[in-house]
Amino acid sequence: MTERTEPLVELRDVKVHFPIKSGLLVDRTVGYVYAVDGVSLSINAGETYGLVGESGCGKSTLGRGLLRLVEPTDGEIVFDGIDVRSLKGESLRRARRRMQMIFQDPLSSLDPRQSVESLLIEGLKAHGLADDKAATGKRLRETLEAVGLPASALRKYPHEFSGGQRQRIGIARALVLNPELIVADEPVSALDVSIQAQVLNLLEDLQNERGLTYLIIAHDLAVVRHIADTVGVMYLGGLVEEASSDDLYREPMHPYTRALMSAVPVPDPLVEDRRERILLAGDLPSPTNPPAGCRFHTRCPWAQPTRCADERPALRDVLGGHRVACHYAEEIAAGRIRPHEVEPELVRPDDGGAPGDTGELIPTP
Amino acid sequence: MSLLDVRDLSVVFQRRGERPFTAVDKVSFSVEPGQTVGLVGESGCGKSVTSLAIMGLLPQRGNKVTGEVLFEGANLLELRPDDMRDRRGRDIGMIFQDPLSSLNPVIPIGVQVAEVLERHQGMDRRKALREARQLLDAVGIPDPERRLKEYPHQISGGMRQRALIAIALACKPRLLIADEPTTALDVTIQAQILTLLKQLVDETGTALIMITHDLGVVAGLCDTVNVLYGGKVVERAARHELFARPRHPYTHGLLNSVPRLDSVRGERLHAIRGSVADNIPWTEGCAFAPRCNYVVDACLEGAPPLEPTATGGDLRCNNPVPVEVTVP
Ligand SMILES: Nc1ncnc2c1ncn2[C@@H]1O[C@H](COP(=O)(O)OP(=O)(O)OP(=O)(O)O)[C@@H](O)[C@H]1O
Ligand SMILES: Nc1ncnc2c1ncn2[C@@H]1O[C@H](COP(=O)(O)OP(=O)(O)O)[C@@H](O)[C@H]1O
Ligand code: SF4
Ligand code: SF4
Ligand SMILES: [Mg+2]
Ligand SMILES: [Mg+2]
């Protein structure tokens, strides 16, 4: 799949923090959601970077921050040599045409009152690309054909399509602008299994035909492994591991990645019966109040008494491009450190909501 | 006698001014005591409606349920609503996909568990709360004493699902129906909940109907699997048999279309073409025919019958996938 190996996209220490406001009259910032908290990665031209992690770990925010659909708090974003964060007005608009997004829920991301034709033309108009009527018509038909929809789809409305077809419309809307980078946020997770394969194959075909670069965000590890050249695993706003897809799945090194991979059910009873699961204790901590040190230390079965709780591990190259953010990656890989039991810590969903005390439920005798 | 024997269960929805819609079409399957049975299929194939019909939880109006649901020989469809309510919770427990909407938001978790024990086992509040604390502990909720007093929104999704399991299992039902119990959860939390379910089912001998679209979940859990398509069972087989030799073209297609964590990378996925929108009505032929690579003339001449297979399962297909093709 890869001929060029120039990075098209580079993120350096990107942070996206959302202020938590409180106060009725004056907006007072009482804290931050550290949605993305220092991510550095690069995506080679023509390749697919897959970002995995559990809900709330900051995947979507990172993707949106890259396209400046949310404003990053800090860090550098370089797209084809352009400093994206400094772009304004016309130059931002020009750059945006080259970077498009596909969303998870095909229906809610498409305006139900717009026909497919007007959905597709909208983007072209915004970029002044719809002036020549005949050329535009041709472009629309070609785009639809590329995503496997008939030209008759142009006059229809999103609700007249099945989920898989709607996702094709979503892809067409991104594609029609002839972008170089597509950020796809959970592009198949709302689709039935039998349809997922169609959409994944389509994304691959389009990449081969047009040399597209993808950032594919998904929580499904099997999907990401299938489609990505390089995979990054996120936990609580940070990258904890990054490697080529094959390396990562052959030898996951970060304790969180190991747990994540061992948790994915495989549709094969022979495999399932033999599997050893690394069950994580407790829930994902809240990104408003991430644990100090290694963010995974509250759930890590390999956590050590030194460093883990007070020193945040950097993402470092452990072997030949396999990057891991764990102080003890080598020792764990070599089996010198064994996993142990972890006491689950309770995590509140909103973090900070005071527990409603209903008094003693069990009367003390 | 089977614990549960579902015979020719049909559910037809009828809205005024609309054509009747058959969501569940003569579905039959049985569950033996202590057995785990899977119902799989994609969105809209009738999994949830089947389970709601078994539980008597379909809306009062707008649908017609026919067939028999025999629980230890008694037809649940003929019970009065009061008696059915009694059965739910005591004999049959249920867990849904979204624990937040199945829990009462204004009642502390502990009281919700205790109420089930009071209602079905006649315990007083004090005893019921003690038992509730033990149940929360058994489903792995940390610090259960404190959790008793908390409201559903104060605990995480995974903990809520554990609380729901505690409620469903409070009265030691002989059958538990779980409808996509882990679909809304993250994969590491899903692993926790599935492990817990498996362990509880083993310990208590409760039979389980597991409803899911995830073939991986079925592979690790179910003794027997029923594959639904368009409201009908199209294939039924023991777990190992189904995954090793899927004979129905739909089952075969599904298994081939999912990317696997342990498969060779770089291979193109074998997608099933079209979508359920292409289905034809079963009255005209096999609903899957427009998407099927094995279609023969007979497939457009009415619904193929569900027939027993040589390996003890059942198959609804005129031209099944040859065994040579399915063996890797
Ligand atoms: N109350 C209702 N009125 C009319 N039609 C309904 C009703 N409930 C369900 N249906 C229809 O019945 C069919 C089966 O629905 P069901 O909820 O059982 O699907 P499912 O297999 O559980 O799917 P999913 O995987 O999406 O949960 C669907 O076509 C659905 O639209
Ligand atoms: N606009 C926003 N304002 C405040 N918090 C947000 C906003 N968008 C996302 N978040 C929070 O940031 C964290 C990461 O979210 P997200 O990137 O959507 O995660 P993921 O895509 O990995 O599930 C979550 O805690 C989420 O609630
Ligand atoms: S740094 Fe420590 S706590 Fe973090 S993953 Fe490594 S061993 Fe676990
Ligand atoms: S009955 Fe015919 S159309 Fe239906 S699955 Fe079998 S071969 Fe395909
Ligand atoms: Mg997201
Ligand atoms: Mg359902």
Strand content of chain A: 15-25%
Q: Remind me, CATH topology of the largest domain in chain B?
A: Rossmann fold
CATH H-level name of the largest domain in chain B... which superfamily?
Answer: P-loop containing nucleotide triphosphate hydrolases
> How many runs of DSSP E, i.e. beta strands of chain A?
12
The oligomeric status of these chains comes to: heterodimer
Major sheet of chain B: order of its strands?
6-7-8-3-9-10-12-11
Number of H- or I-type helical stretches of chain B:
12
| Unique bound compounds | adenosine-5'-triphosphate, adenosine-5'-diphosphate, iron/sulfur cluster, magnesium ion
Structural class of chain A: alpha/beta
Largest sheet of chain B: 8 strands, mixed
**Spatial order of the strands forming the largest sheet of chain A:** 6-7-8-3-9-10-12-11
Q: Biggest interface: chains and residue counts?
A: A-B, 65 and 65 residues
> Which stretches of chain A are low in confidence, meaning pLDDT under 50 for 5 or more residues running?
351-365
- Tertiary shape of chain B: globular
Radius of gyration of chain A: 23 Å
Number of strands of chain B: 12
Provide the succession of SSEs of chain B. EEEHEEHEHHHHHEHEHEEHHEEH
The level-1 CATH class of the domain at 7-251 in chain A = Alpha Beta
Q: Which fold name is given in CATH as the topology of the domain at 7-251 in chain A? A: Rossmann fold
Structural class of the helix and strand makeup of chain B?
A: alpha/beta
Low-confidence stretches of chain B: none
Q: In brief, what are we looking at here?
A:
The complex is a heterodimer of chains A (365) and B (328). Chain A is built from 11 helices and 12 strands.
What attributes characterize this protein structure?
heterodimer; A: 365 residues; alpha/beta; Rossmann fold; 8-stranded mixed beta sheet; 4-stranded antiparallel beta sheet; 11 helices; 12 strands; 29% helix; disordered C terminus; B: 328 residues; 2 domains; 12 helices; 34% helix; globular; binds adenosine-5'-triphosphate; binds adenosine-5'-diphosphate; binds iron/sulfur cluster; binds magnesium ion; ABC transporter ATP-binding protein (chain B); ABC_Ni/Peptide_Import (chain B); AAA+_ATPase (chain B); ATP-binding (chain B)
